[in-house]
Amino acid sequence: MTGEDERDDGDEGRADQFVCTAAVLDVTPDVVAVSNLGVASYVLAGVADRERNFYQWGSMGVTTPTGLGLALAVDDPVVVFEGDGSLLMSLGVLSTLGAVDPPNLTVVVWDNAIYGTTGGQPNHSASTDFVGVAESCGVPATRVRSEDAFEDAYRAATERDRTELIVCAVEPVDPDTRPPFDFAHIKRRVREELAGE
Ligand SMILES: Cc1ncc(C[n+]2csc(CCOP(=O)(O)OP(=O)(O)O)c2C)c(N)n1
Ligand SMILES: [Mg+2]
């Protein structure tokens, strides 16, 4: 494990998801951001509604697979803002990431230990070692629980030419901000931005 501490960090502090999301856009202003449905997208839209944001609406468990596909299609850096519940739904994608390993992809998992978007039901993140699973699939991974550690980990990940996973323990948040609710617009906007169509 390459994280700053042991995985079971229950009461030892959790990072602010808004601050960490903003740090990603500061470090890599041109990054293509694929965000999980619900809270991850609400936060991203609150930080900055950009043409390079590919928000998921309604589709759970497909955020990292979508980011993987995009990373293979473009040369720009791609970040996935994944939810712990969503990743649990498609954990097998870690095996694919390890095998395919696009150099421009960083997957951030917001580990709030709940299905935050649907009311805060506990999920199984506490008993699942995301870092261990990722590393056993050949994906270098780290776990952080502060804004500074997150920014350091993200910066380092983007400086290496490989896919990496950052699991970030975050405080649950309930944002008021929302992405556009026009799904076709979101898809068209990001496609036009990336492909110039
Ligand atoms: C296939 C499917 N199952 C369930 C839902 C309902 N749902 C929407 S968001 C969500 C919780 C997502 O949890 P997580 O990925 O941990 O993100 P968080 O809300 O905590 O940021 C659920 C269960 C859905 N949209 N799609
Ligand atoms: Mg969650």
From TrEMBL:
Ribonucleoprotein recorded as keyword: no
Keyword Lyase: yes
Signal peptide residue numbers: none
Protein name: sulfopyruvate decarboxylase
GO molecular function: sulfopyruvate decarboxylase activity; thiamine pyrophosphate binding
InterPro entries (alphabetical): THDP-binding, TPP_dependent_decarboxylase, TPP_enzyme_TPP-bd
Primary enzyme class: lyase
Pfam families, alphabetized: TPP_enzyme_C
EC number, UniProt record: 4.1.1.79
Catalysed conversion reaction: 3-sulfopyruvate + H(+) = sulfoacetaldehyde + CO2
GO biological process, one term: coenzyme M biosynthetic process
Source species: Natronomonas aquatica
Residue ranges of domain Thiamine pyrophosphate enzyme TPP-binding in the record: 53-167
Keywords, in A-Z order: Coenzyme M biosynthesis, Decarboxylase, Lyase
